[in-house]
Amino acid sequence: MLTLLTYSFNVYTAYIKIFKLISQIMRCSRIFLIIILSISVEIFSLEVLEVKILNSYSVTKEFPGKLLPTEQSKLSFEIPGKIKAINVDVGDLVFKGDILAELDNREAVAQVNQAKATFDLSKQVLNRFEDLKKQGHISIQELDKAKSDFIVAESQYEFFKVKLEQTKIISPYDGAIQNRYLDTGTVINAGVPILEILDSNFVEAHISVPILYLDSMKIGEEYDFNFEGSNIKGIFTRLSPMSPGGSDSRLAIFKFSNFFSPGSITKLKLKIIQQATGTWVPLKTLSQSEQGIWTVYTINQDNQVVRDLVEIIYFEGEYAYVNGTLMDGDLIVLGGPSKIIEGKNLIN
User: Fold this and answer.
1) Is this structure's pTM higher than 0.70?
2) Could you give the domains of the chain?
3) Residue 254 and residue 205: Cα distance in Å, rounded?
4) Do 259 and 203 contact (CB within 8 A), yes or no?
5) What is the mean pLDDT of each run of 10 residues along the chain (348 residues)?
6) Between the CA of residue 89 and those of 85, 92, 105, 181, 197, what are the distances in Å?
7) Any bridge partners for residue 63, and if so which?
């Protein structure tokens, strides 16, 4: 983009005088000769930037958003009852399949046992009737009745086994307990939240991105984020189908390979390529002219300081992207007008 160079221009302000005094100098001491030469020579140094004309520039936009767990669930019992035990508390890490809480299951166990006994009996009756039917001792209607009783008993047995399972809250995934709402001994109805669990493996960033920038983004690609002063990568996974609240933005979802604290704020750093001819220059090289036009000072092929007019297209930090009369290879004086005088020849 820009190359920083240091040019030393030796200005011999008393070059001719040295030769005029050469005869007198020869009669002086060596020390006096060195002093005369030191006084007679001025060294003039400038730092300049070599211009490289570009066809486009990159714009960095930042969009804040919140980190959320990929999964977050409020867990409850599917049946009413009295809480027998809650085995976890806020902050505990749990694994998929862990028993998190239990209801008093004595009634459910009794119903399962009763249903199992009815099921076992119906199965024995069905087997006996099948044998009797083969021997021709019962009618087909009696066998069908035995089969029907068996199916009903089997269904009842499976039903009460499910009800027994519903006296337990099982962790649906690896996670951390975010909230605990009730305690042991509480009598509850079905669906009352008992615990809240967060996925402890991954988090997502929910970022509201203006629609005009979405054309430059692709699902599945990585993007840069700033999180607590560190740069991290997030994968653009999906996009909401509608704009929130009628705004001109869409909710973009990004997933991270590492786990970060849910609820924290992060910033998407989106780099956008804009097509425009120009070059980057430090802001300190610019001086304001008329009607929104700015001036930079350059050194031409004759080593003279000349003025170029430019227009600021975009600026970021300490640099501005400009276009105007600058050309490839021009040398911009770093420091602007404070360092030089327009029209001055640097080699006198």
Assistant:
1) no
2) 60-70+199-274 (2.40.30.170), 73-197 (2.40.50.100)
3) 5
4) yes
5) 48 38 43 35 64 90 91 95 96 95 97 97 95 90 94 97 97 94 96 94 91 89 91 93 75 89 90 90 86 86 85 89 90 71 54
6) 11, 6, 22, 10, 10
7) 268
